[in-house]
Amino acid sequence: MKVILAGAAKTGTKTMAAAFTVLGFNTYDYLENYFYLHKEWLKIFDGSATNEDIRRMFDGVDSLTDAPTCIYWEELQEAFPEAKIILTTRDEDSWYKSLINQFETGNASFLAWIICVISPQSILRLSYSCHVLGRFFGDHAGWPSFKLRPFHEKVQRALFRQHNYNVLKKAPMDKLLVYNVSEGWEPLCEFLGVEIPDKPFPHKNKGGTFIDELVKTSPVVHQMLFQGAMSATLMTLCVGYAGYRLYKTSSGQRWGTWILQNAQKAVERVRDFQKS
């Protein structure tokens, strides 16, 4: 493990994940942790994971970003004492505005809701999602709503300040970089001891567009969409077959005939009303 990003969500975590990828690091952001390692993370959540468990979890991973990394950065740093720590910072007012915008964008996204509702992986990971959101970001309505409900503004701001203070107080100073993504490549690459790439510094999730970006580029989201489509297809086939079997019975035929007759009567009444 080369670097642990301890900065809170909405301080440029998606940008940092993209920057680490450009630098050639194998990066686990929120989705990778959520999709591939949720069971292992549950052990970290309840305090039963050993340092050996954590090192085994992230074998071959170079960098960690976003939640739940930022919440459990101390446990991760204890397991990887050689890793460097970056605290990404941001003006508190713009951070809070961006956080609320992200919640609203996510709650309004029909595609995100569909993924959560029909993907078996999302349903199986409910305890993971609720824990992560509840620790820092607010509340999670659960299946089938999946709406995010942030804390009161004063609580949200206080948690943000406390998080930053905790990192500054507890992280080893010789391994810590306090960094704003607006600073670009130079301080980041100097801290990590790598060459500055011949590419522009990335800027991801600008304006809370990360859902659209993930749908286009994320292999994890593509897997969830595929699994969700398969689940929806199987459900449709099962319902259709059950309906067919019911219709083949005498009671099912009577029930189907009754529906058709009443539907015809309803159509006739509408027509009569339109003529009058």
Could you explain how this protein is built, in words?
The chain folds into two domains: 3-217, Rossmann fold (3-Layer(aba) Sandwich); 230-275, no CATH class. It contains 14 helices and seven strands. It has helices at 13-22, 30-36, 38-45, 51-57, 73-79, 92-108, 110-118, 120-124, 126-136, 153-170, 185-192, 210-217, 219-248, 250-275, and strands spanning 3-5, 27-28, 63-64, 84-88, 138-140, 148-150, 176-179. The strands form two sheets. It has a five-stranded parallel β-sheet with strand order 2-3-1-4-7, with helices on both faces. A two-stranded antiparallel ribbon has the order 5-6. A hairpin with a 7-residue loop joins β5 (138-140) and β6. The longest helix is centred in the C-terminal third of the chain and has 30 residues, at 219-248. The radius of gyration is 25 Å and the shape is elongated. It starts with a strand and ends with a helix. Pfam families: Sulfotransfer_4.
What are the salient characteristics of this protein?
5-stranded parallel β-sheet; alpha/beta; 2 domains; Rossmann fold
Quick rundown:
This protein has helices at 13-22, 30-36, 38-45, 51-57, 73-79, 92-108, 110-118, 120-124, 126-136, 153-170, 185-192, 210-217, 219-248, 250-275; strands spanning 3-5, 27-28, 63-64, 84-88, 138-140, 148-150, 176-179. It has 2 domains: 3-217, P-loop containing nucleotide triphosphate hydrolases (Rossmann fold, 3-Layer(aba) Sandwich), CATH 3.40.50.300; 230-275, no CATH class. The model has no long low-confidence stretch (mean pLDDT 80).
